[in-house]
Write a structure and sequence with these properties.
It contains 13 helices and two strands. Helix 4 crosses helix 7 and helix 5 runs antiparallel to helix 10 (253-274). The protein has helices at 2-23, 27-47, 59-85, 88-95, 98-108, 116-132, 142-165, 179-208, 223-249, 253-274, 281-300, 317-329, 335-340, and strands spanning 112-113, 305-306. It is 72% helix and 1% strand. It is mainly alpha-helical and 346 residues long.
Length: 346
Amino acid sequence: MVCLSWYFSSAVTNNIGKQIMNQFQYPVTLTFVQFWFVSVFCFLSGAVFNMTKIQRPTRGIIEMTAPLVGFQVVGHVFSSVAISRVPLSVVHTVKALTPLFTVLFYRVVLGTTYSRAVYLSLVPLTAGVMLACRMSLEFNNLVGLSCALLSTLVFVMQNVFTKKIFGGNSHGAPRKLDKMNILFYSATLAAICMVPMWLYAEGWTLMFSQDPLGGASGSTGTWSVISWLLFLNGVSHFFQNYFAFSVLALTSPVTYSIASLIKRIVVIVASIVYFHQTLGVTQWTGVCMTFWGLWMYNSAKNAAKVDPTSSILAKTKVGRRMSRGFGKGLLDSDPEKVHNRGGFMI
């Protein structure tokens, strides 16, 4: 049920985001607004609805969430720029490579060894999404494609490292922050850090230009329509983040990547319906291949073996210490064990 809610909110967020970008060519502003919406809704969830208690900021909390801010800002800005330049289905086709990047990082850097079946299962998963999106791959915008790829890489790093980031306790931070507190502090810090970027890239134009929606900006919408779409996008973006936290808290990074891959299909199909496109035989074949790959992965994931001594990090004294630390927080594929240690994953 949590996964389905995540898929639905993601589809709404992405399709409204694309609609905004079609009328309002300010991708940094879209990201800036999304962060503030998440921050405000998290605060209201605690102050008004008593869903949680937003803790007072401490040095430990700031140090715990600060590493996440860089991933959030860079990844979301790249993603917004990508959907402003290329079709939404193209962006999510590129993001469907997330499982491959995750497994590659674990194998090369951390020395995690999986069975051959696990590696083979990623082939139909990724190939299926590529086939499902083949109809949308007719474009010549290298900037948008590059931004989509960079966004994917950034979020892979975020998903992997957050297990370690939230697995410890230092400088007065509580042993475990709940999802609302993590969302609140990461979004608030990200929004604050984005102020100079937003002012430089788009803010001054929006505030002081005589016609920010016309001329060279390429925007075609009206302020009333854009404001309403930004509000809807902000609300759905909050729920997307909330459900993403919940899913990742219950899975390993690779399993989360597989769930994210399925989410890409949902978003792509939703965009096809929303923008009145059609699916052919090739696209339906891709969908079937993806679910086949998911079944293969679920059957093979328990055969994955961890061998930290074979990693690149294990070859140096500093690397061995890092590997041991990552092995305790990152390489544990049992979410219950990670949960019991107090870690929380985004």
